[in-house]
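Journal club prep — side note

Before the paper discussion, L.F. wants everyone to see what a predicted structure for a comparable chain looks like in token form. Sequence:
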Amino acid sequence: MSENTAVQGPEFAVLLGMPVVIRSEAMRQVMQLVQRVAQTTASVLITGESGAGKELIARALHQFSLRCNMPWVDVNCGALPEHLMESELFGYEKGAFSGADKMKQGLFDLAHMGTLFLDEIGELDPRMQVKLLRVLDGVPYFRLGGVKKVSVDARIITATNQNLEEGIRAGKFRSDLFHRLSQLHIHVPPLRERHEDIGALAEFFLHQNDPGMRFSPDALEALGRHGWPGNVRELRNTVMRAAIVASGNEIRVSDLPAGIHNAPPLKPSMSPTSLDEMERQMIMQVLGQTGGHHAKAAQVLGISRRTLSRKLKTYGVGDACEALTAC
């Protein structure tokens, strides 16, 4: 993995051009899970608060996969108007509409044999949800204005900061699409639950902005006390602001926004779920989605049926029916 080169020790790496800084045990476990999931062909749904690092996880899934040398294509479903989404995803033929003076490949075309990352999938309108579901089920599609069907092979990774199950109950998101997209599910914990990452990320952002600057111990302590509702994005912006307003080479508490240096101490969070438990939950989830079919579940998980049976025995699950009950 040429683009995942370690720099400044094991806490820093680059994934598809995006810097990654990890010090907390919670994120280390997530990244270990990512490496396992990446080896499968299953669709992955990444959930987490805005700014928590969902795109980082999506890039890691591609980088650690067998498709790492093939195209990586990403799109924010909430950034495009509804009337442009179809032509962006599926492309169009010359003359399909006014201004279409030549054929344009869609994002599915461009991601052929690689990975297509659909961010903010919860923003997709119902009509596009239907078409996306058909493509994910392997049904060839037409470009806008086209008469020739197009077939592609792309791994789909999606992300959202919404509760899609609530969206299903509200009639805003299709349940069949949700289950198709979430063959595997990875949750990114918010920054407030990754206390060890706060100082490491702050120092990384500061070094990016001005290698000659540093934080005072009191400033780092204040950053650690803040709840970071905007997560990593808020932290980065805070560091950039502090670097500008600081009068010298050291950022002091007084250089931070008032809401940060006056923040009460964070309440300790519960210990993160163990990697073994995360693996168990993932296996049970896939078994439920495959109707308890061991061979299909093993194929989705990228492991042998014998390995799956051995793990189920370890969990005290004797057969598929018990596995479904456990889910």
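L.F.'s comment for the group: The domain at 12-187 is CATH 3.40.50.300 (Rossmann fold). Keep this in mind when we get to the figures.
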